[in-house]
Every structure is written in structure tokens, then in C-alpha cells.
Amino acid sequence: MDYLRERDMNLTPQRALIVEAFLAEEGHFTSEQLYIKARKADPSIGQATVYRTLKLLVDSGLAETFDIGEGVALYEHGYGHAHHDHLICTKCGRKVEIVDEVIERRQEDLAEEQGFTLTRHRMLLFGTCPQCLEGKES
Predict the structure, then answer these.
(1) How far apart (Å, rounded) are the C-alpha atoms in residues 85 and 49?
(2) pLDDT, mean of each 10-residue run, the chain (138 residues)
(3) Which of 7, 57, 58, 85 sits CB 3.0–4.6 Å from 123 for a disulfide?
């Protein structure tokens, strides 16, 4: 909360509840899932307030977002979490966080070869997880 206040972000009581719900959540989640959780704490919280608060969290670097297709955006903590990429199953939606130093170095090399200075990146790999391949969707 102090981080947001230090950046002069208007932290209303409703936004504070949403931020608390966001910080308590681990893993990947949609804005709808956060909205449901926040409404349990305060039924007067509107979906638009959740969207606006998530945008502030993304803009501040506390949250990261990525589109997994079909208009579905997922959110996760951005601050204090190591960089990782994702494998996403197109059948069941399973998400696996991956870290590969060889890939990370290669991405940096590719950017440098093209004269780019990387400021950030996100890699999403889509496919079918082992459980779905075996017909045992999770």
C-alpha cells in the first residue's frame, strides 16, 4: 500500500480492498476472479473499479498481465517475483511457469543483434499438456 501512496495513487477504501485481495492471491487469475473475491469483502465494489485498479497495478509494476487468447487476460504479481515465461494448454487452460537461462540469453542476443535494448518481454508457448494428450483433462 505504501508503494502506491508514494506514487500519489488515490487509494480509496474500495481500491485498498482490491489491492489487498490482489496481494493475497497467488498464481494467475482473471479480473473476474479478483472481482468476485473483492465483492466478498465489500459488495458495493463494482467491476469497473476492479478493472481500473488492476490497470493502476499493472502501470505501477506491481502486477503483470498477459492475454492467453480469446480476449482472456490473466494477472499475476509483478513486483518481487522472478521473471518467468509460460506454457499454456489450449485444451484445459493449465499454465506452467518456466525459467530457462539459455532462452533468456538467446532473447537478449537476438535483441542486441537487431540493435534493440530490451526493457521487458513475455514469452507464451501454447500447446497441449500431457494430461490432455492422454485424454485425462485436469
Answers:
(1) 29
(2) 62 87 88 94 93 89 83 82 84 88 92 91 90 80
(3) 85
